[in-house]
Specification:
Length: 507
């Protein structure tokens, strides 16, 4: 057969079986066959951008709707946001010049409170808001707004967040200069993003306020950041993170509402009096309503006398059964899996977990969180904002950086430190971290970074604590200069010996 292929001969003809017959005889991939079970499964072959441009508006609207009215969806979005951002993903300049780093950090902390163009959030609040908008709507746009010197900002730059609706999916055309607009994004001949065509106002606000231009405005791509999670190569627009759970959340929400109403109805004592004949009345005029129906007053201990031929029957609605909790749990497990979080994070139900199970779930979940932090949030949002901020700080004179033009990449070198996570058993984790550091498996800097801090901050804080304690004559058990790790006092002779050795080295 190999020789037949090399000579360009049909191998099936060599074996004496025509192609059609071989396709019937060979099983191939069962998932690709049109068998009875799969006859109705005929997905299309559209590209990712065709699918998103044609469906993203409806997906986004339904995602926003389910988050507004469904507690599980809201909690899931909140959980993703808090785990991805926490108290903020913070930058630390890693230039070898410590003085410049300290100055840059101090300037950045001052700018953090002035960064929001709407003057509502600080920079880390903008991070959380941007991530929430990305999770709920699939994407978010970040405009870099340059300000004038007279605006009085420490660095003349602010950040404006725009929801995905500002970028029209219906704008798709080829331009005379050879550029192409796809989903509101303009690309050049080599597929680089050169501009975004944005609505000045949110399209959903027109009906309420009737203001703002209805035509998109071309904004250079250098002034816009596009934050979204790409799932396929070549993808240009984002997909809401709740997409795979939307139908289940919607139907489950209706089911739970119906079940709640059923339980409410079942809790009411509903009785029905039946008569032998429709003209049979109740003894006495007081027992008749205006329309001639029997009036029955229910109260504790009531004994109601009925006429001859009358009978009373009570409603007996079916109970939900013993599998209701299990059914809801399975549905919530599917929703949590679709959103990338654990069942416990989605529902807050910790009744079935132990130390090992919840830690295993958190380890897997946090691995995904770290991936999304590094390749999506930091790369698409934090990194370019730091670059632009550094440029503006130097150009405005707020930050002195000699030789900045030739050493731009050196000055802009930065390490972004995400927040640290609290573990289930902090004692065991701290002991394990100490053992890793002492064994040389990780550095102290790495261990501190995993907790959301920098070693410079920790060292400076410890030094300040020690200086203040020495000034006030205070000795704490936590001070290794005076106490051992078991709490015993350090022998003064050992200290004197160490001082003598240090003096000898200095001489």
């Amino acid at each position: 057969m190999r020789k037949a292929i090399q000579r360009g001969v049909n191998p099936w003809a060599v074996n004496g079986a025509p192609p059609a017959r071989r396709s019937v005889m060979s099983s191939g991939y069962e998932a690709a066959q049109a068998s009875r079970r799969l006859a109705s499964w005929t997905p299309g072959g559209e590209g990712v951008n065709s699918l998103l441009i044609g469906n993203s508006d409806m997906l986004r609207q339904r995602s926003r709707d389910i988050v507004r009215r469904n507690a599980w969806a809201t909690n899931g979005v909140d959980s993703l946001t808090s785990n991805l951002v926490g108290k903020g993903i913070k930058p630390r300049s890693i230039l070898t010049e410590a003085k410049f780093n300290a100055t840059a950090h101090a300037l950045w902390e001052r700018w953090v409170d002035e960064s929001d163009a709407h003057e509502i959030q600080n920079f880390y609040g903008l991070q959380a808001l941007a991530v929430r908008a990305m999770v709920e709507g699939g994407e978010v746009l970040i405009r870099l707004r340059h300000r004038r010197p007279e605006d009085g900002l420490v660095v003349p730059l602010q950040i404006q967040l725009l929801e995905a609706e500002h970028l029209p999916t219906t704008l798709n055309q080829d331009l005379p200069n050879g550029n192409r607009i796809r989903g509101g994004i303009e690309f050049d001949a080599i597929n680089r993003r050169v501009a975004y065509h944005l609505y000045p106002e949110h399209p959903g606000e027109y009906r309420m306020f009737g203001a703002g231009a209805t035509q998109p405005v071309r904004v250079p791509a250098s002034e816009v950041l596009h934050l979204f999670r790409p799932l396929r190569p070549g993808q240009i627009r984002g997909e809401p993170w709740l997409t795979q759970a939307l139908i289940k959340l919607h139907v489950l929400d209706q089911y739970e509402d119906a079940e709640l109403e059923r339980k409410k109805t079942a809790a009411l004592l509903a009785g029905f009096i039946t008569r032998a004949a429709p003209d049979v009345g109740v003894i006495g005029e007081d027992g008749m309503s205006d329309d001639g129906l029997a009036v029955v007053d229910w109260a504790p201990g009531t004994i109601q006398t009925l006429l001859a031929g009358e009978d009373i029957k009570f409603s007996d609605p079916a109970d939900v059964g013993p599998n209701y909790d299990r059914f809801l749990r399975m549905q919530h497990l599917a929703v949590a899996a679709a959103m990338g979080i654990t069942y416990e994070q989605l529902t807050g139900d910790l009744s079935l977990v132990n130390f090992s199970s919840i830690r295993a779930g958190l380890v897997e979940m946090r691995r995904k969180m770290e991936q999304w932090q590094q390749i999506t949030i930091i790369h698409q949002m934090c990194r370019p904002i730091w670059t632009r901020w550094m440029d503006q700080a130097v150009l405005s004179g707020a930050l002195r950086a000699p030789g900045y033009v030739g050493r731009r990449h050196e000055y802009q070198a930065v390490k972004w430190i995400p927040h640290g996570w609290d573990w289930v058993d902090p004692l065991k984790d701290i002991q394990a971290t100490v053992m890793e550091i002492r064994a040389g498996l990780i550095s102290r800097e790495q261990a501190i970074s995993e907790r959301g801090f920098s070693s410079e901050e920790i060292d400076r804080a410890v030094a300040d604590d020690n200086s203040r304690a020495d000034l006030l004559g205070l000795i704490y058990d936590s001070d290794p200069r005076h106490r051992t790790k078991t709490g015993n006092e350090v022998v003064q002779d050992q200290q004197d010996q160490q001082q003598d050795q240090q003096q000898d080295k200095n001489q």
